Every structure is written in C-alpha cells, then in structure tokens.
Amino acid sequence: MPHFVSPSQSPPAMVVPIKAPEGAAPPPTQQEVSSILDAVFTARTSNASIDAAYALCEVLLNSVGYRGLHSYGVLAEVKKAAADKKSGLRRESAQNLLGALFERFPPQQRISEIVFLLQDGGMLGVALDALADKGAVVREAAQYGIDALLPQLSPEALVVGLLPALLTYMKKATGKWQGTVGALKLLEKMADKAKITIGSTKGEAEEQDILREALGTKLATLIPIVEAAMLDMKPEVEKQAVKTMHSVTSLLSNDDVAPRIPLLIDTMQHPKPETVHKAIHALSQTTFVAIVTSPVLALLTPFLERSLNNPGTPQEVLRQTVVITENLTKLVHDPIEARTFLPKLQPGVKSVVDRASLPEVRELATRALNVMDKAMALEQKNVVERTTGEDVAKILDAEIKKNGGLSGDLDAYKLARPYVGEMVAEDVNHRHVKRIAARVAPYLKGSTSAADAIADAVQQYYVEEDARKYGVPEKEDDGETEIVNAEFSLAYGGMLLLNHTNLRLLKGHRYGLCGRNGAGKSTLMKSIAGGKLEGFPPQDVLRTCYVEHNQGEDADISILEFVSKDPTIAKEGRERIVAVLEEFGFTSGPEGRQSQRVGSLSGGWKMKLALARAMLQRADVLLLDEPTNHLDVANIAWLETYLKTHPDITSLIVSHDSGFLDNVTTDIYHYELNKKLGHYKGNLAAFVKIRPEAKSYYTLSASNVQFKFPPPGILSGVKSLTRAIIRMTNVSYTYPNAPKPSLSDVSCQLTLSSRVAIIGPNGAGKSTLIKLLTGEVIPSSGKVEKHPNLRIGYIKQHALEHVEMHLEKTPNQYLQWRYAHGDDREVHMKQTRVLSAQDREQMEKFIDVGDGKGKRQVESLVGRQKYKKTFQYEVKWRGFLPKHNTQISRETLLELGFQKLVQEFDDHEASREGLGYRELQPSVISKHFEDLGLDPEIANHNEIGSLSGGQKVKVVIAGAMWNNPHLLVLDEPTNFLDRDSLGGLAVAIRDFKGGVVMISHNEEFVGALASEQWHVVDGRVTHRGTNSIALDRFEDSKPGSAVTSGLNTPAMSSAVTTAANSAANSGAEDNGVTGESMKFRAKKKKKMTKKEMKERESRRRLRHIEWLNSPKGTPKPLDTDDEAE
Description:
Elements: H1 30-42, H2 46-61, H3 68-71, H4 74-82, H5 88-108, H6 112-117, H7 124-130, H8 136-149, H9 155-171, H10 177-193, H11 202-217, H12 219-230, H13 235-249, H14 261-269, H15 273-284, H16 294-309, H17 315-330, H18 335-355, H19 359-376, H20 389-402, H21 410-429, H22 436-444, H23 451-470, E1 482-492, E2 495-506, E3 510-514, H24 521-529, E4 544-547, H25 559-565, H26 567-570, H27 574-583, H28 603-616, E5 621-625, H29 633-644, E6 650-654, H30 658-664, E7 667-671, E8 677-681, H31 684-690, E9 724-733, E10 743-751, E11 755-759, H32 766-774, E12 781-786, E13 792-795, H33 811-818, H34 837-844, E14 858-867, E15 870-877, E16 886-889, H35 890-895, H36 899-914, H37 922-931, H38 936-941, H39 949-961, E17 967-971, H40 979-991, E18 995-999, H41 1003-1009, E19 1012-1017, E20 1020-1025, H42 1050-1061, H43 1090-1108, H44 1120-1124
Parallel strand pairs: 3-6, 3-7, 4-5, 5-6, 11-18, 11-19, 13-17, 17-18
Antiparallel strand pairs: 1-2, 7-8, 9-10, 9-12, 14-15, 15-16, 19-20
C-alpha cells in the first residue's frame, strides 16, 4: 500500500498558511512534515520509528504547535495507520507516534489536551482500541502512550478532559473488551492518584485534595458504568471492574461507610434481593460521624433505591431503609447535593407511605419525606448555587475585553473557552480558588499577550466571590494556646446527634460535656479516641487518651505487669511506672497493691488504674467518661485535686456527678436542641444561670424523663410494711483463695418499706453484701432467709453483665427470651441455684417420710400449697407414677437437706405469680420499656450491642421490673444514667411501693431517698438511721412547687414515716429477734357452705382445663378463689 505522502503523489512544496507564534521558527512545509511521517511509518526498527516521532514533535512544537496536528494531517494519518489491518508495522508506528505526541505536547502546549481528549472524539480511543491488537509490540506501544498521557494532566484536566473521554469510550457498543479493561485501569490509576499519601508535599497534597473532591462529585455517573462492567460476561472485564470499584469508592473519605464498602461492592457484583437486604441491615448498624456528601450519596442511593422500589422488600428492611434515608438526609448540608440525589429516592419513599402494611413504617416514611423536603430547601433563596463552566466563560470574556481583547488565534480561544471554564468551575465549587490562574493562563497564550493579567483577574474575582459566599472566618485570639478547632457532624446508627457543629479546645482547660442520656456524649468521645472525628488532630500530633467506665482488663496478671504491657508506657521505664502508680495509691513491693492481680480490684481502683495509665502515656488531652463511677468520696476529692493541679493537661469530661463537674470544670459544652454544641465559659453553676432550663443537672425531679415502676403485688402473710421479708443472720463470706473474709458476722433484715443505702469505701464488701442478699453467692457461714414468694429485682454494679450475652438481640427480644417459660431465666444462673456435687449427692439419697411406703428418691417438686402457718410441697418420687406423689411440709424438706430444691421452686412460683398479670407480647413489652424511659423505636428495632451505656442500663432495669418485684436492689445505679434519667429513677424509687436497697457514692441521690444507712467497713456492717430524708433534693418538693411535700402521698408516708420511726431496725415488728426463724402465717379461712365449695371446685376445674389446653409456656392462672378465702 503506497504511503500517504509518497514522492510521486506529493503536492508541490508549499508553506501551510499557519502563522507561527511570535519568536517561533517558521512553519515547515507540507513536504517536510510528510517526509518525517514517512520516516515514522517506514522505519526498519521500533527505535528508529520512535526517534522520527520525537523529531516530528520537535518540529511542530518549535513552529506552529498543536495547530499543525490537524493542518498537516498528522492525526488523520495516525488514525488511518492504526486501523491498517494488513500492516502490523504501520499499526505499531501509529502508536509510537501517538505516544510521542501524548508525552511531548501537553507539558509545552496545554491546549493540546483538548485536541487529544475531546476534539472530534479525541485520540485516546485509538490507543485503547490498540490494546486488543494481536501483535504484542502494538499493545506495548499503545500502553506506553496511555501511561505517558496520565502524568501530564493536572487534576482539573483529569476530571474535565480524561474522565469524559474514558466514559464515552466505555459507553460505546462497538468498543473492544481489552480497551474497556484499559479504560478501567486508567480510572483505577486516577482514583489511586487522589489517595492521601504519607510524606507528600503541600502542593502534592493540594492536588490530591482537588482530584479527590472533583472525582467524588462525578461518582453518580461513574459508579453505574463501573458497576455494569462488574456484570460483564468477560471475566477479565469483571475482575478489573471490581478492582476499579474498590479504588473509586476509596474517594469517599468517609470512615463510617469505609468498613461497609467490601460488602456493598459484593452486593453490586451479586445483585440479589437477599444481598441488598444484608447491605441495608449493615448500614442500619453503622455509626455515622462525618458529613454526608455527594460521593457517599452516589454510592448509597442505588442500594436505598432498590430496597424502596422492590415490592418484595420485607417490612423490617423497608423500616431500616427509610430510617437510613432520613438520617443520611439530615447529614447532607448542601441543598444542591440533596437536590441531585434525593429526587431519585422520593418516589420510593412515597410508595412506602402508600403501600407499607405496618403503620409504624408508614409514619417513618412520612417523616423521611418531610426531612427530604427540608434538606432540598426548594423555597430557600440564599442557597449557594454551583458555578458552571458557562458562568466562568462569561467572566473570562469580560476580563479579555478589559485587557484589549484577543490579538491572536480566535479559533484557539473558541476551542479553549469551554474547557477552561469547566476546570475553573471545579476549583470554584471545591473552594480551591488559589489554583485558578494556573488553569487559565497556559490556555490563552496563543490568543492574547495579556494571558497572565487575565488569569490573575479571573482568580481575584473568584477569591472575592468565595469570601462573599462563605465569609472570612474570624479567629478568636484570647492569648491562650488553641490545640483543637474541629467542625464536624455526628450520627449514630439511624439517629442524628450533632449537625455541623464546632469543638474548640484550649490548653489547660477542663471542659464538661453535658447532655441528656443518648445525646451522644460517649459516642463523641469514642469518635475522638478512634481518630474518626473530622478536623480533630491525629494521635501523632496531639496525644489523646480515652478513660472509660467500662474497661476490660487482663484479670490474671499483676497490676505492674498489666501497665508495663502497653508499649507506649513501657518506654517510660520501670522506675517511673512504679512511681506514678504509687502516686495513684498503688503501693509497691512484693506485698504492695502493685503485685495484686488486676481482677482483684474493685470498680473504684480499676478507674484509678485507668487514670494512672493515661498519665503514663503523657496525654495532652484526657477524655474522661464517667471518671467518678465506682469512686468513693475520698477518691473523688483526690481526682478533683489532681485535675486542678495539672494545668498542662486539657480534659473533656462526661459525668453525672454534678458536684464533681461544678468543682472541676472551667467550660461547659452542652448538646443543644438544634443539634449543635453550645460553649459556655465557667462551671456548671454558671452554665445553669445562663440556661435555667438545665437546672435538672442540680435537682432530681425529671421533667422530660419519667420512670414508672409496676406495683410489687401481695406477699401472703405480710400485712405490715415493716414486717421483715428477708433476713441475714451471722453471715460471713470469704472469696476463694482470699486471705481474709470480705464480710464477717453480718446480721440485717429488710422490709417492704425499707429505703436502705449501703455506704463504704471501695473494696469494703458492699457488692458482696448485696450478692449474699439476692442469692448470687452462697455464704461461707450463717444463713440467709427470705419469704418464699419474695421477688427481687437486681441491677448489678457492672450492669451490662445482665445483657452481655444478648448483644445481637433487640431489647424486646431479650425480654421475651428472659421470661419465655413463665419465670425469670436469670434466676437459674445464680450460684445458689447451681447444683453442686454435694447437692447431687443429696438428690441420690433414699429417704423415708414415714408414710409406710419405705425409702424413695426425690425426683422433683411439682406443686405447693398453704399448710397451717407454712407451706407444703408436692414431691414427685423417682420411678413412681404421679398418683404416688406425697405432700411434705417445708420444714421437713429443709431438715432433710433439700434447701436448693425448695428455694428453686419458691423462686419459680414467685416469678409465675408476678407474671400472672403480664402478657409477653411485643406491644405490652414496648409499653413497659416506654414506662422506663426507653424509646419504643429503640426497644423494638435496635440491637442491644448498638445502644449507649445509659440505654443498656434502662434495658436491665426493665428486665428486672418485668415480674413486679417486691424488693429492688440497685448496685451503683447512678453510674450510667444521665441527670434527667437519674431524676426519673429517683422519683420512681420515691413512689415505689416495695423495698429498695442501693449502693451509691452519689451523696445527692442517697440523701434524697435513703432513710436508713448500712456502713460497710473492713467487712463489718454498722446500721445507722436518719430521721428524715432530703426532700429538697426533689424540685417538686420545694416550697412553691405543685407538690409541697412527698409526705402527703401514701407512698411516702409508708416509705418515710415508718422508716424514720425505726430506721435502725427494719422489721421492728419482729422485736429485733434476728435469730428467730422467719415464718409467715397463712390467712384465716372463712367457713364456706357446701354450695359455695361446689361452685369453687367447678371454677377451679374449668380454669385448669383451659390452662392445659393453652400453648406451652403459658403461665398458670392465679387461683383467685384461694386469694378470696
């Protein structure tokens, strides 16, 4: 095939009528250019062809520049040769020349980017098509050219020029799969180029930022195209598309969504309803912290859209979808971004409003629609609109006119105008306005001699425009060192906590973080500690240490070993570690506290250990989450002094102890109603003066949190509120392998009117005393007696132990599991209910009860009824039919050694009695949770593992109160609850008709409620009474309030008056004879007529038949006839 410019066919030598730029060489003739082209395509070796290609570039660049690419037919010849199926040499030469053009032209003549990428379809597609060539040398030459082009382009050019060229190529139906793989690889490289790299210069970091932000706004277009490639029939295309999608989604820069990206990509690759539902569930369990921008919306909108629009989506998934939609929308701060994506979701959400079967889902969808309308701000006039390329072009035209107009090539300006406009618009929209001049001047060089002046003028215009739109931030200069100034948003799961707020910390200040329970105080602290909070300095810049109340330590090693294990602390050296631990009260030496096991520490000492570790890590910022939890009064005073005497440490403190906050804080950050953090100088008292509505931080009456405890029910034989219902006599207890007993010779008793506070230093044995009372542990000596029907609600010191095995359940599901079989499953987990080897041996014994049937083995107890002044139990014998069952009195069974069997049956019957009026239905359980301050939405749908500490404690309280207990035992109830919830709990305890025992270091809480105190010191218990309780702690008991005195209520008259008269001896009716065995008289029976007895038996029989026919697990109905006797 003859060469394009052969000597016989070449036109006569002539100069192409192109005016060379001033100072450039004269334009070459067509024959000179053709001669070089001929050398490129006919060279015997690749190197010779490449040399000729570079020579052509030099000729054109030194004369007419990029104009010669079209006027001399260079690009047309490249296209023709690249498509020559007969000559592999010409195809290779075409790619060699294209590679040389890509490599040499853009750095010297920026306007050539438009020629290569966009004009007349560009030349990139020619190189991509060549990747499918059967000749390896052709493919290599094409790949060289593609790789040479990428580094020559600025971030703006990559987004405005290269990206559209790639997307156009990938949309082509006639494109070759190898070219598609090449295009996907280019996209992957672009995305990787935008990633933040360690050690990059300031200029490189700025380029990464603009490329990441600009590419992020294009994800709405980019993701569907790459997703389609992930479903391609060619495995090579699918494999590369998955890799590209991983790189592209890394542009999100969102730490909340990042852990879910692999699951989301897998869902794209296998698009089935089940995988979409799994992705939605994962998103519903995600903690959202960062602001939601268009990249996040571009990724998540398709999943939400599929879930909403699929008629087969289950109701629970629809509920999760609309909640995620609502809360993502709340985090979208830019109405323009909202208007781009939300209209795609609105039809789906509207259809949920119309077709969802559950009213709750319809209500949530309606709420989501309202939030979406608000986010789009359609009626708002002051929305900052996006700058378009045409907007920039008009400013550019005006500035050119001011500078004398165009003096060069008009066609060049027409070519550059839209391209330059789009690049500048990217800089303006992402607020990188200092880059504008460099995007304008190089493209105007051939059109005007005032290119630099015009570029500077355009940049200055947009700098001023940016200041007008967003304002100039004023920095407060108060002469102190600012260490943090972060602007961020905070969300948790489906709930927005903080919206576009600011946190500013000054060195040496102590900030109190105040807000209601569930406001997100611990979430904010954990986000800071985990390095997830936008704008907060990283650990290598500002050392931040998080001290929380829920610590998991290695229990089996010594305290010194445990602390030294931390690599950051080990650097301090053993001497300093020992010295700091001593400063915190951990004595050194073989017999000192430092040698004790970590597991032996009480809650207060564990908190001191955590604080010591923070000091050893030389923290700049201490994040103290409930630091006073488990600390006694002396240790709280020590902590206050410590924080005040270290002015080099900045503290951010969450605490429910108002006295501690008042004494320590210099500033308050408060969770405001508008989802902002409000900053107030001064301590808590100063804050309340400014914000009187926050006085609940000082008083216990809660205005917005109400707890309502169920009534305890009747205890047979107990007619007086001061009759003892549980008693300990001469009890001692020693922990396994402990050198001395934790409690020695303790005697005490409780009544239905008891309001007892157990007080003492850390490690004195308070929690041990509670565990003995409730049956959690067995006394080493002495005895614990209780009323057979007594129900106890117990909240442990480390309250989360109750639910730690059920973190995957919702609160509603947990309560259903706990009471599914008609009694409380957690009762069976007590040590007093676990059969020991001795108990099993007892069950194997043969006994003779003197009924003439000889010795037999007890199998179980199957019934109980009143007998004289006590109870008798129906015994099922091993190997005998039920008709041979025997009634044996309680005292006889106890004498025979069957204490645990009797105790277990008593607990079972007591629990069934308490549950007799309870329906274990989700709706009833939801109401129960609502009574105890937990939102039914959270109770029904959020997994326990995702709840805050305060919410988990409410779940525990709800579980303990479900079976209507007579005695409520609270071990450190104030540790996890905020002020409002604490007030609600205090009011509920005040009005509760049963007995209450509490351990608390919160003097305010104890003083308001406890009429009796048990002081535990060195294993000994001392009883002290108080003549009155501090009713002034309750806001509704102060003069002038609606309720002048709690003593006016029956609850308070029983709980206060009787206790005050005999505070030192709960159970005064027993005349202080603590050694007397607890006996409860049965009610006197009224004589019945024969007719009445027949009617009673008929009613009982019908009730029993109805119960036998009911589903398994249904509680046995109460014998109301028996109660009426």
